[in-house]
Here is the input.
Amino acid sequence: MSGDIFVWVEQFENEVVGASWEAVGAARQLADEQGGHVVACLFGGDGVGGLAEEAFGYGADRVMVGKDATLVDFRVEPYAALMAEAVEQGEADTVLIAATFRGRELGPALAVRLETGCIADCTDLAFEDGELVATRPIYAGKLMSKCMIPERRPRVLTTRVRAFGKPEPDVGRDGEVNQLQPVMAEEAIKTKVMGFEESEGGVSLADASIIVSGGRGVAGSEGYGPLQELADVLNAALGASRAAVDAGWIPYEHQVGQTGKTVSPDLYVACGISGAIQHLAGMRTSKVIVAINKDPEAPIFKVADYGVVGDLFDVVPALKKVLAERMG
Amino acid sequence: MHIVVCTKFTPDSEAKMSVDESGKVSWGDSPLIINPWDEYSMEEALLLRDEYGGKVTVISMGPEEALEVLKHAVAMGADEAVRVWDEACTGSDTLATSYVLAKTIETIGDVDLILCGKSAIDAETWQTGVALATRLDVPSLMYTIKIRAVDGDAGTITVERLLEQGRQVVEASLPAVVGTTKGINEPRYTSFMGIRKAAKMAYPHWTLEDIGADRAKVGRSGSGVRWPTVFEPPVREGEAEIIEAGSVEEKAEILAEKLLAEKVI
Here is the structure.
């Protein structure tokens, strides 16, 4: 019998971030294999307790709820302090956190508080000779590394978004809910959230299952129009290469690659992207890659599953038209 | 205002990485560069110095190679540079690295703001900035895409952080650790004068004793994470199936069929 697996379940405006369910699913698998319970930790303001039921459905055995005015917005200090408290109250062997932006902050802050190691962005977890071995990409996925935390407990690991499948919820599952008292008073917290400016519409790159991406071939900001139309039909996020971002055609938020976001959608449609090594590093784990490019020699065709040699301004609208009819 | 910029060297982002039979990582003949995210920190530090006055000190934990990165930062405009290293630091994870950086910053003393890249493009843990802030018990403001204001009298900084759903506006007390992301500024090129200055500068090398660090807390003994194996991922098989047809419309039809059959749309 090994210790429990704690999972931080992230919510934004009382909606759980999908990647957290992936982490709960990964924790469930490990617990089924090695023993121990899955303990989901949910922090927030009013309404956060209502999310506990969902956590059971996705595989939690126990839910610890921290509800307080200081926890409405994610802030590293009070969240890490409360997570440390939750872990110390229990018998934690492992802490899993989805590697979202906030999760990537919580992981190391928690690890330092607990004087333990934190393995970032795991894409695979498996027990080998009783030790949990995490596989993670380094150098933007140009290499992979196998990591472990053999001597310290609990181990803290963050799971890469979309690397672990989201489990099918089982609405019949139930469990125990515990309340956690916040450990930091507002006066002791050195950050204040003054506001939030939500991105205008569109699907976020990080958790998109389809990405339509444009590079140098898009030739200007107007060139993203047809790509956006295709993205709208597919409910896809809009991506871009570094060349397009550096040219000022599209904001940095959309950049895919080693100095942008690493993505792994079901479908990646690369339009007018030649396939520089630093771009390929950011999207090579996509399930299916389609390349649309005028240059038949473009390196992108080496990693793509399907290619269309042609002008993206002809091919993309034609594809949009067909898909709009098929998926109508 | 005294600003400290933490930096490190990494292989160039265009480098082709490989691993030999002994497990040694190589980046071929690609150059070592300043971690690209740190260039934004350096630029931001210089912009803040121009606006609010003060000085910029750049620090790096690393062997001799780290000197080149410090020289680059000085050529950009940093006032002082310190390299911290001891062979005992080899094998440090972020738990140990953040300890060394925190001890270094405490030794410098009187620091108002610490800037770092939001991550480094080699190990890509995204951890060191937050871990450092936690060590120093100061706020961390990662993914900062805009510094709105620094209020020296009130001792606060207001930034915009880029998160999945949009931009979060946060005010924090100083000192704080700010992690910069692309889009915050356009890093300057090093000038001829800057390069000359960097060549003449002295670069103090601090040891663990200089920063009063406990040797048990650095390197392997101070780290939680071990990474015994590094390997090259399997290459994506084969070449793309090129869709051939008479017209663009026909190509689109065929491609749509394929994607529907793949069940990805």
User: Anything to note?
Assistant: Chain A touches chain B through 97 residues (CB under 8 Å).
